[in-house]
Amino acid sequence: MSQSNAQEILENTERDIFSIEQAKKFVDENEYPIDSAKDFTNQTKGCIDDRENDRRGSLPDIAIPGAGIGLIISSIAALTLLSERYGGGGIDLEKFVKSVENVIGTPTYHTDEKHEHDDLSCAGCGHCKGSLDNIDAYLLSEEQASFLKDAYLPSLKARGISPKIYSGEHDTKGVFVIDDMAIGLPATGFGGERAYRYHRAWHEQGLREIAEITYPIVNSSYPTVPLSVYGDILKEAAEKQLTNTVSRLASDKPKFIVKKDEEGVTIVSILSPETVPEMIA
């Protein structure tokens, strides 16, 4: 190791963030395979939260903002953008969300020990609670936020779908943006280091499938909007929400891209600061 690299690792350790060498070591020691042939619906979904502490074998396959609930929140936000740009609306939220569930499967979500008994069942999730506390920033109307808080989330408990409960404080040393559908990473490494993981490749796949499945409902209210435009709007809403969450929870943390090269070797590189706002490529 060169003297400059050693100094970088020392400085980053003192600042409690990953250097590029530490990030590569984390991936090398903790990477696990995901069955990329399994469809999106059947992939288990967890949040990007660094407090996810399951180990290999019981981990969610993919990590996306807010887990399954995050996809529902983004899908609803897309309706806000549609209404703003094309007028109209009147889409039945309950019917729309049921259609989204056909893609995501069981709508997973989480809270934490501090908020386990709060009325809001996702109060311990920075993405879910953040969206309901900052509805303008997350592109939600008051009606949509009320539907989520007062109707949809309570209905999950009534259906026997309870939040996973995380413990402890946030202690992430970096953010891994995973651009490969066959790579999985835990939030907690074998050495105890913690990180946010975001499966961008799987997130984009899920958004495409949601657009296709929900388009007949959207088309009935917005007949002039083609599927491609609706898909772009859904992606825009998800990107806006993700950027808000990362800015609040990990703005000072380094971001890394993880993917395999043509020979199947996992590559870790630094995400350029200029592209950080565009977390969804």
Description:
The chain is an alpha/beta fold. It has one domain. The protein contains 8 helices and 10 strands. It has helices spanning 3-15, 20-30, 67-86, 93-104, 126-133, 142-158, 200-221, 227-250, and strands spanning 32-33, 45-46, 62-63, 110-112, 164-166, 175-178, 183-184, 196-199, 255-260, 266-270. The chain has a 4-stranded mixed sheet. The two termini are 33 Å apart. The relative contact order is 0.18.
What overall geometry do the principal axes of the alpha carbons give?
A: globular
Give a short account of the largest sheet: 4 strands, mixed
* Count, helices: 8
Mean pLDDT, to the nearest integer, reads: 89
Strand order, main sheet: write it out: 8-6-9-10
Question: Please, how many domains?
Answer: 1
Task: Describe the structure using short key phrases.
four-stranded mixed sheet, 8 helices, globular, 45% helix, 281 residues, disordered N terminus, 12% strand
How are the SSEs ordered, and which strands pair?
Elements: H1 3-15, H2 20-30, E1 32-33, E2 45-46, E3 62-63, H3 67-86, H4 93-104, E4 110-112, H5 126-133, H6 142-158, E5 164-166, E6 175-178, E7 183-184, E8 196-199, H7 200-221, H8 227-250, E9 255-260, E10 266-270
Parallel strand pairs: 2-3, 4-5, 6-8, 6-9
Antiparallel strand pairs: 1-7, 9-10
Helix pairs in contact: 3-4, 3-8, 4-7, 5-8, 7-8
